[in-house]
Specification:
Blueprint (H helix, E strand, L loop, with lengths): L2 H6 L3 E10 L2 E11 L4 E5 L6 H8 L7 E6 L2 E3 L4 H6 L2 E4 L11 H5 L6 E2 L9 E2 L1 H14 L16 H15 L3 E5 L7 H16 L3 E5 L3 H7 L2 E6 L2 E7 L5 H9 L8
Helix pairs in contact: 6-7
């Protein structure tokens, strides 16, 4: 295998993704690829199949047909736990944070670092200092600033909560982070901070799949945009102002040639 082939291999590739819910075809042979250090925007109107696709990638649903590859190797993702084991983390709109816990406790909920290893799990001591240090290091690397690091997330702003949720995903994901409407219900200033965080993920070599209804935000951070409609992939184009009209036409159902 040549160096060029290695570079060209997508970190995540989905081919022929098909998902049925009874007689309803939620996904109909969808293909998707995203590379390390790339932001792929996933666009489409409500009911287009975007959420179903990412839930299949993240282990919430199981594909009826199709294949998922990580770094070129086929994988079987049967649950959210197995998706995490393959380096895939998803941040949904509800964030799934524990409001009564601080950032460190949220980061390591269910994945606490404890020891010594020779003791049964229930008798081990939590490595609170180690978990706190790792959390601080990651937040610093992503340039996330919190007014009070020990505060419960319930006391934080929407943008700060979103930043904690994204940073938690990055803490345990070495490959792909999926963001489902990360700026929903946020103001302009907080939305801008979240988009800056997306760009920092890209700079750190993380592949990002971004679901958004804001074309301006997509054009500001995404490298490519893929449009879905009624469970099918309609087209794919570079995410730039030259292709904006084409992307919108695909979203609303107008005809047009696929631009890559």
């Amino acid at each position: 295998m040549t160096a060029e082939t290695i570079v060209a291999t997508p970190v995540l590739a989905v081919s022929g993704a098909t998902k049925l819910f009874g007689a309803v075809v939620a996904l109909d042979g969808v293909d998707l690829e995203v590379h390390a250090g790339e932001v792929l925007a996933l666009l489409g109107d409500n009911g287009a199949g975007k959420s179903t696709l990412i839930k299949c990638i993240s282990g919430v649903h199981k594909l009826d047909k199709g294949e998922i590859r990580i770094d070129g190797a086929p994988v079987h993702i049967s649950s959210a736990i197995s998706a995490r084991e393959f380096g895939i983390e998803t941040v949904y709109q509800d964030l799934a944070l524990f409001d009564n816990l601080n950032p460190t406790a949220n980061f390591f909920a269910g994945r606490e670092v404890a020891g010594p290893a020779w003791l049964p799990r229930g008798l081990q001591w939590l490595n609170q200092r180690g978990m706190t240090t790792r959390t601080r290091e990651l937040l610093d690397r992503l340039q996330v600033r919190l007014p009070d690091f020990e505060a419960d997330v319930a006391l934080m702003s929407g943008g700060q909560r979103q930043a904690v949720a994204v940073a938690r995903a990055v803490a345990f994901s070495s490959k792909v982070v999926i963001l489902d409407e990360p700026t929903a219900a946020l103001g302009l200033r907080e939305s801008a901070r979240v988009l800056e965080l997306v760009l920092r993920l890209k700079e750190n070599g993380v592949a990002v799949i971004l679901i958004s209804h804001s074309m301006d935000q997509v054009l500001s951070v995404a490298d490519r945009a893929m449009v879905m409609r009624r469970g099918r992939k309609i087209g794919e184009a570079l995410a730039n102002h030259e292709n904006q009209e084409q992307l919108v036409s695909w979203i609303v159902g107008a005809r047009g040639d696929v631009a890559i």
